[in-house]
Amino acid sequence: MAKLGKRTTAARAAFAGKSNLTVEEAVALVKNSATSKFDETVEIAVCLGVDPRHADQMVRGVVGLPNGTGKTVRVAVFARGPKAEEAQAAGADIVGAEDLMETVQGGTIDFDRCIATPDMMPVVGRLGKVLGPRNLMPNPKVGTVTMDVADAVAKAKGGEVQFKAEKAGVVHAGVGKASFDEAKLVENVRAFMDAVLKARPTGAKGAYVKKIALSSTMGPGVTIDVDNAAAQ
């Protein structure tokens, strides 16, 4: 068995015996244990009592974190003419139409968020098998199929987070960086949880939120008291 390093051993010792903490306690513990040489992302994972294989139990949504994610988001926009110019002026990293489609089909995906005007969806639709599994497919339900591309780009760049339940009913996201103030991380966690709670589908039965875990990129995780997670 490989010997654990000093940092890992110390982190595990700090987390030992701790669970179902308040958001404030969990944030403090995760933040103080994030001692890597880079600025670790603080990540949240929420286990939901849903089966996303059923349409009436799918959970997906979008939330603008009040303090941003601390991550530089690369945005691609499918648009033509004035809307393409609008996207470029708003700060989109990549703007195109059929040329962008061919680039993506060729295996180059240099973006974290994809936005499209409604008239471009027949073109974007050909990329479903490529963008869908990466959760990059534009969708009107989360505001990424829109004529207001400038607003969509601004939100994506400003800390908007999309979430979608995976096969096991888990949603996860980065809610900030370890360098953030504790109060800002707490605010982001609560904003994310509020959005997940509001996205409860009609088909969800019984306990909707089963478990919440918070961790940093390189650190162990700790569970948060479900009843304490939403905004106070």
From TrEMBL:
<keyword id="KW-0687">Ribonucleoprotein</keyword>
<dbReference type="InterPro" id="IPR002143">
    <property type="entry name" value="Ribosomal_uL1"/>
</dbReference>
<comment type="similarity">
    <text>Belongs to the universal ribosomal protein uL1 family.</text>
</comment>
<protein>
    <recommendedName>
        <fullName>Large ribosomal subunit protein uL1</fullName>
    </recommendedName>
</protein>
<keyword id="KW-0689">Ribosomal protein</keyword>
<keyword id="KW-0678">Repressor</keyword>
<dbReference type="GO" id="GO:0000049">
    <property type="term" value="F:tRNA binding"/>
</dbReference>
<comment type="function">
    <text>Protein L1 is also a translational repressor protein, it controls the translation of the L11 operon by binding to its mRNA.</text>
</comment>
<comment type="function">
    <text>Binds directly to 23S rRNA. The L1 stalk is quite mobile in the ribosome, and is involved in E site tRNA release.</text>
</comment>
<dbReference type="GO" id="GO:0006417">
    <property type="term" value="P:regulation of translation"/>
</dbReference>
<keyword id="KW-0810">Translation regulation</keyword>
<dbReference type="InterPro" id="IPR028364">
    <property type="entry name" value="Ribosomal_uL1/biogenesis"/>
</dbReference>
<keyword id="KW-0699">rRNA-binding</keyword>
<dbReference type="GO" id="GO:0019843">
    <property type="term" value="F:rRNA binding"/>
</dbReference>
<keyword id="KW-0820">tRNA-binding</keyword>
<dbReference type="GO" id="GO:0003735">
    <property type="term" value="F:structural constituent of ribosome"/>
</dbReference>
<dbReference type="InterPro" id="IPR005878">
    <property type="entry name" value="Ribosom_uL1_bac-type"/>
</dbReference>
<comment type="subunit">
    <text>Part of the 50S ribosomal subunit.</text>
</comment>
<dbReference type="InterPro" id="IPR023673">
    <property type="entry name" value="Ribosomal_uL1_CS"/>
</dbReference>
<dbReference type="GO" id="GO:0006412">
    <property type="term" value="P:translation"/>
</dbReference>
<keyword id="KW-0694">RNA-binding</keyword>
<dbReference type="InterPro" id="IPR023674">
    <property type="entry name" value="Ribosomal_uL1-like"/>
</dbReference>
<dbReference type="InterPro" id="IPR016095">
    <property type="entry name" value="Ribosomal_uL1_3-a/b-sand"/>
</dbReference>
<dbReference type="Pfam" id="PF00687">
    <property type="entry name" value="Ribosomal_L1"/>
</dbReference>
<dbReference type="GO" id="GO:0022625">
    <property type="term" value="C:cytosolic large ribosomal subunit"/>
</dbReference>
